[in-house]
Amino acid sequence: MKKTSSIELSKKIYERLLTVYPKTYKEEYRQSMLQTFAEMSEDAGLAEVWQIILKDAILSLPREYLALIINNMRFENIKFAVIGFLFLVPMGLFIVTAMTSQALNQLMIYPNHLNDSIGQLIARYLPAAVVAFLVLPVLAVALNLAAVQRSLLQKNRASLLSGTFLHSNLFSIVIACGGLLALVFLFGHDAIPCFLQGIYHHGLKGLWPLIQVCRIA
Q: Which partner for 101 in 92, 114, 153, 202 could form a disulfide, CB atoms 3.0-4.6 Å apart?
């Protein structure tokens, strides 16, 4: 009798827990989840059942709400954004490794050893490095810029002004901008401070000589 009352109380608590799930998810899975909970409660101890239920809730709730947000935003060109992200992964890893190496070098933890190792590795696999750090990022930027441009041509003025265009193409815009920033950082991380410092001290009068100097910085 005591076990039966505990099970009934647990069922009521579980029904309350299900109310926090998205509406579409509840409509599709509520009955089957309640049935599964009832069967588990009969076959196992309530402590074990609740351990499983809470673990599932912790994992499934964020996933379902994230899926709901993505579906409601109706992202376009998501496949191009995913491809672009994968294309940018090697460059991202390289930039993180290079910055870590530079930081360790400044702290005199591994002076120049890691930098030398990275340089030797790139020199050894130069064709692969060119593909990973130049070709793939350029393709990622080009693919997503082309996708955004295509969407731009298909939209009317009202959708552009309402912000629908920005929301639906958010991932492609982020990937394109991220790829451009990564390329600028990778190939201009020494030249950019030189150029900015030159503009600050000398203005725009000697712009072309400054570009020539900073190009080889």
A: 114
